[in-house]
Each structure stands twice: as C-alpha cells, then as structure tokens.
C-alpha cells in the first residue's frame, strides 16, 4: 500500500515531504498539569534540552504547549500561557533544524509565538474558540492543524454521544477546513481528535476507520500518545502505556496517518520506519 496523495508542505525554510514517509511531532508541554508529563519541563532550560533531545531522536516537528487540554482542565490566563511558551520558543526556534509548532487556541498566543519563530499552529478547536484566530493565521501563511473536539477540554469527556461517529467527525473537519480556506488558510492538516470528546471505544473506531478521512484530501495527524483509551484496553497507568501507544501508531500509519504526535519520539521513530517500509514495499 503506497502513500497515494502528495501532501508535501513547503513553508519558510522547511519542506515536510509527507508523501514519502510518516512524520513525527514531538510533544513539549511546558505546563504543570498535563496528564502525562505535567511539571517535567516548566523550567526553560529543561524544556530546551528536551526539544534538542527529541530532534536528535528523529522528531520532524516540536509542538510546544502552555495550557493543558486534558479532560477537565481549566483554561490558563493569556499572560500565563505567554510566559510559559514564548521564552522556550525564543530559545529553540533558532537552534533546531525542524519547525516549531505552537499548541494553542488563543489568537494572541499564536501571533506572539509566530513572531518568536513558530512555523506551525496546532489548533484544537478547529478555529472555533477564538474568532480572531483565522485572521492571525491567514497573515502567517503557515501549516495549521484543524482538530475535531466535542465540547471543551473542561467538559468534553462528560458522556460524549454520537449518532454517526466517523460521519460527524468528517463533516466537522470538512466544514472547518473549508472555513480555513475561505479565511486564506491553505496549508491545513486534519486531526480526528483522539481523546477529545470521545469514549474509549470511539477512539478504537477512529483508528480502525482512519482511512475514511482521506476523502477530505488533507494530511492526517493522529495523537494517541499515552491516552486513556490505551489504559482502558490494557488496564495500565499512564506511565506504562508505551507499547500501547506504539501499537496505536502502527495501526494509524497503516490506515493513512501522515503525522504522529507523541511523547516517546525515539521509540516511535523506530516503529514508524518499519511500518513505512512495509507499507511502501513493492
């Protein structure tokens, strides 16, 4: 099974050849309360070291986040989010050879992060939470991840219900990528939002039927890393979900994922290289 679509993204000094191989987005949470690595990289120097390590391990993108979007998380004030992310971006953007992404739904954070050297925006709300985000991103001409979420991080896991899970997510992603295009945002990546307003079984269905999102004709990003559906299936705490994450990543690649957003970069790179080799063999 070959990668069928040319989803190469050229922006600034970067060219992500997504049609050739699966790319890895390394997670860098500079937050005290993220579900998996909260508090580990609050110190700027530790965050910078972690970014450099992930690049050495094979990360193609570093995704910096200053506000936890775990289930039940409360919003972080704008000033606090800026204080967390901008010094880290200032430090790593000129030093690493891969693009830096900002994980935010606030237009002010995105704008300042872009000025500091960010080359991508990972936007969990599909451009819905902040009406000014569209204008900020259209002026920047950079790749934007459009993610599906049902509700908000605070309430998204309070009994989410779907009549047609895949159909509803596809319709949402179609609508929001079209909205982005109408606002001058052409370089979009779609993310079905594993763990964002989904029951455990819903996440399994998304992985199984991921290839159905190819009809939107955008690169597909999947972020299964250490999430609760893995703990549900394997009955394991967050710190023991590496193997489950790698299995989910392998399934995602075989079903069409172009980018994987993960914490464990080195291990995921190894799995990805092998699965890509299987997928592309004649």
Please describe what this structure looks like.
- With 282 residues, the chain is α/β, with parallel strands linked by helices.
- The protein has a single domain, classed as Alpha-Beta Barrel (TIM Barrel).
- It has helices at 44-57, 78-92, 107-116, 133-140, 165-182, 200-208, 228-234, 242-254, 265-280, and strands at residues 9-11, 14-16, 23-29, 61-65, 100-103, 120-123, 144-147, 188-191, 221-222, 259-262.
- Helix 1 (44-57) packs across helix 2.
- 48% of the residues are buried.
- The model has no long low-confidence stretch (mean pLDDT 92).
Keywords:
single chain; 282 residues; alpha/beta; TIM Barrel; eight-stranded parallel β-sheet; two-stranded antiparallel ribbon; 14% strand
Layout of secondary structure:
Layout: E1 9-11, E2 14-16, E3 23-29, H1 44-57, E4 61-65, H2 78-92, E5 100-103, H3 107-116, E6 120-123, H4 133-140, E7 144-147, H5 165-182, E8 188-191, H6 200-208, E9 221-222, H7 228-234, H8 242-254, E10 259-262, H9 265-280
Helix pairs in contact: 1-2, 2-3, 3-4, 6-7, 8-9
Return residue spans where pLDDT drops below 50 for at least 5 consecutive residues. none
Determine the N-to-C terminus distance: 8 Å
Protein structure class: alpha/beta
Please provide the ordered H/E string of secondary-structure elements. EEEHEHEHEHEHEHEHHEH
Numbering strands along the chain, what is their spatial order in the largest sheet? 8-7-6-5-4-3-10-9
CATH architecture label name: Alpha-Beta Barrel
**Tally of separate domains:** 1
Give me the count of strands. 10
The biggest beta sheet is recorded as: 8 strands, parallel
Shape: globular
Percentage of residues in DSSP E strands: 5-15%
By CATH, the topology is TIM Barrel
**Which CATH class?**
Alpha Beta
CATH homologous superfamily designation: Dihydropteroate synthase-like
- Residue share in helix: 25-40%
Alpha-carbon Rg, integer: 17 Å
Mean pLDDT: 92
- Number of H/I helices: 9
